[in-house]
Amino acid sequence: MNEELRAAIIQDDATGRVLMLGWMDEEALALTRSAGTVHFYSRSRQQLWEKGETSGNFLRVVEVTLDCDQDAVLVRVNAEGPTCHDGSTSCFTPWLWRKILQREAANAPDSYVASSLERGTAFLARKVGEEAVETAVAALSESDERFVAEAADLWFHLLLLLRSRGVDPADLEDELRRREK
Q: How far apart are the C-alpha atoms of 89 and 83, rounded to whole Å?
């Protein structure tokens, strides 16, 4: 293993969201600065690689900053597409969204996720409406445990509806951040 590796934190310039963590040696750092796209050193393959070279989802460099000890790098970027290999905006995607993506990809015949997505947006929109009503009723007249159970169903089905529309939950966070300004 290369002893000169630095942790490289990749951050979306527009949202501030941490997209991923990789490793850079001096050559990867120099290439990142000169090429304007992020390069890493692969510890498993023992070689340099450019993020996006196979997926087309390049990370365009906005700024490269070393920390005070010069043993870590913060790279602010404009991402061209999802950053994570699983299709998520960030490698730090919440577990439920990642589970939905995994179950969709597996497309098992007994998977509720896969069959619901197959049934389409109209089906999922109706399910979200149904779960929203059940959540509201539970909030007004049932125990905290029942309210939590109904809210979880609503959240889960809303995530499925987002997936059916091809919308990443991170887009909702971005919209709310825009509204805050």
A: 5
* Strands of 59-66's sheet in order across: 18-24, 6-12, 72-79, 59-66
Q: Which two tokens stand for residue 18?
A: 């941490």
Q: Say if residue 168 is in the same domain as residue 120.
A: yes
Q: Which domain holds residue 57?
A: 6-79
Q: How far apart are CA 45 and CA 118, in angstroms?
A: 38
Q: Report the domain count for the chain.
A: 2
Among residues 115, 113, 142, which one has the least CA distance to residue 133?
142
71 and 37 part of one domain: yes
Same-domain status, 119 and 57: no
Host H or E run for residue 24: strand 18-24
pLDDT digits (tens, 9 = 90+) for 53-93: 999 999 999 999 999 999 999 999 999 999 998 888 899 98
What confidence score (pLDDT) does residue 3 get? 65
